[in-house]
């Protein structure tokens, strides 16, 4: 049996949307199944992709991003015929029993769909992130066709499912909400840090204003009331285009004591051993991995009502949720959290209990079972 994985990732060489399918691919290889991967070519190949090849996966690289994919959709389209021929060669040569198509963004077209439908190969779609951007009418039939013929459509939150159903003006009868894997232990319980040197919040996210909203944090922390409080925010994550602005805004507003850039953190549990909670003013999400990991580490989250946050956090009980990612609304939410800072530890313990009631302890195994069921429908 051979399982195909097709990823639409174009924004960065590798991201959180790639973790689930790639870990399942490794487990399939360990079980002596064949795996073929179709991925966009990058000048510096992601290490995770190289590791899949070394583990025995057949990796095919596309020369260009899909032209309607965010953020490339405003660029002139390349020759779509080249992409079609590439897909035909990949499917003809590899002959997968089933294909899992992972969309890093909901406006990415499901390009393999037409060829897979024509050949009778079952496929499913995994939508990893959904924003407020909407689909143009001219692409509506193409997207509906792809989603209708998919055996299942996987989302990482109910909110994301509703947004895509609204985009396509259709209801999915084949949709399932799944969990993404996390990078802390299921029983993580880092020690609670002292607050004698101040309260410390971590913003664990790539530095990307359009999605993660660090610019909102900068505007808030520049306010006099936040400057005068014993609170600091620490940014953990690689840049996706806004590091320079962040550095220069810190200088401009003289926020060195309030906002610090820490870079990428390899060990997430160490981050939570040194911070009292997560602050993440996201403008859109799928299911933020940083939120899940913070909750598993018994830390409160101060975030926005996007993606899966509302499903995992009870506002005012196990965390704090702003209605939207605006400076005014997030200021109100951060203020509410600050006024209850002496309860952050107990609220975090409750958050840890509740996330374990609402989230699976082995998302990779669960998704592997889904893929095997998909392959079993072939023939």
Task: Label this structure with key terms.
alpha/beta, seven-stranded parallel sheet
Describe what you observe in this structure:
This protein is α/β, with parallel strands linked by helices and 379 residues long. 40% of the residues lie in helices and 17% in strands. The protein contains 16 helices and 13 strands. The chain has helices at 19-30, 47-55, 80-94, 113-119, 140-149, 158-168, 209-212, 214-221, 224-227, 243-253, 268-273, 289-296, 309-312, 327-339, 344-358, 363-376; strands at 2-7, 34-40, 58-62, 98-103, 123-127, 153-155, 175-177, 199-204, 231-236, 259-263, 277-280, 300-304, 320-322. A seven-stranded parallel β-sheet has the order 3-2-1-4-5-6-7, with helices on both faces. It has a six-stranded parallel β-sheet with strand order 10-9-8-11-12-13, sandwiched between helices. Strand 2 (34-40), helix 2 and strand 3 (58-62) form a beta-alpha-beta unit. Helix 1 runs parallel beside helix 2 (47-55), helix 1 packs across helix 16 and helix 12 (289-296) crosses helix 15. The chain is elongated, with a radius of gyration of 21 Å. The model is unreliable at 65-80 (pLDDT under 50).
């Amino acid at each position: 049996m051979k399982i195909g994985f097709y990823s639409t990732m174009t924004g960065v060489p590798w991201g959180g949307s790639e973790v689930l399918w790639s870990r399942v691919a490794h487990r399939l290889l360990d079980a002596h199944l064949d795996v073929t991967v179709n991925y966009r070519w990058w000048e510096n190949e992601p290490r995770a992709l190289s590791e899949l090849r070394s583990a025995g996966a057949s990796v095919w690289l596309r020369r260009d991003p899909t032209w309607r994919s965010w953020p490339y959709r405003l660029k002139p389209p390349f020759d779509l015929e080249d992409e079609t021929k590439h897909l035909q060669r990949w499917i003809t040569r590899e002959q997968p029993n089933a294909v899992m198509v992972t969309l890093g963004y909901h406006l990415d077209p499901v390009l393999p769909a037409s060829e897979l439908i024509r050949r009778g190969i079952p496929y499913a779609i995994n939508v990893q992130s959904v924003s407020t951007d909407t689909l143009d009418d001219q692409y509506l039939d193409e997207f509906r066709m792809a989603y209708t013929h998919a055996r299942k459509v996987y989302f990482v939150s109910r909110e994301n499912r509703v947004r895509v159903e609204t985009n396509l003006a259709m209801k999915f009868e084949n949709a399932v909400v799944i969990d993404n894997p996390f990078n802390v232990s299921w029983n993580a319980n880092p020690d609670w840090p002292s607050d004698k040197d101040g309260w410390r919040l971590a913003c664990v996210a790539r530095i990307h204003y359009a999605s993660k909203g660090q610019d909102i944090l900068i505007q808030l922390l520049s306010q006099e009331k936040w400057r005068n409080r014993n609170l600091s925010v620490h940014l953990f994550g690689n840049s996706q285009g806004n590091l320079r602005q962040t550095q220069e805004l810190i200088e401009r507003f003289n926020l060195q004591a309030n906002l610090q850039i820490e870079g990428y953190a390899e060990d997430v549990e160490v981050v939570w051993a040194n911070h009292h909670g997560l602050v993440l003013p996201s403008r859109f999400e799928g299911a933020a991995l940083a939120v899940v990991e913070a909750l598993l580490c018994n830390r409160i989250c101060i975030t926005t009502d996007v993606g899966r946050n509302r499903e995992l956090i009870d506002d005012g009980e196990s965390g704090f949720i702003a209605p939207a990612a605006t400076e005014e609304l997030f200021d109100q939410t951060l203020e509410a959290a600050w006024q209850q800072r002496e309860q952050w530890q107990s609220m975090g313990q409750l958050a840890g209990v509740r996330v374990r009631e609402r989230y699976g302890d082995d998302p990779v195994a669960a998704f592997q079972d889904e893929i095997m069921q998909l392959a079993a429908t072939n023939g």
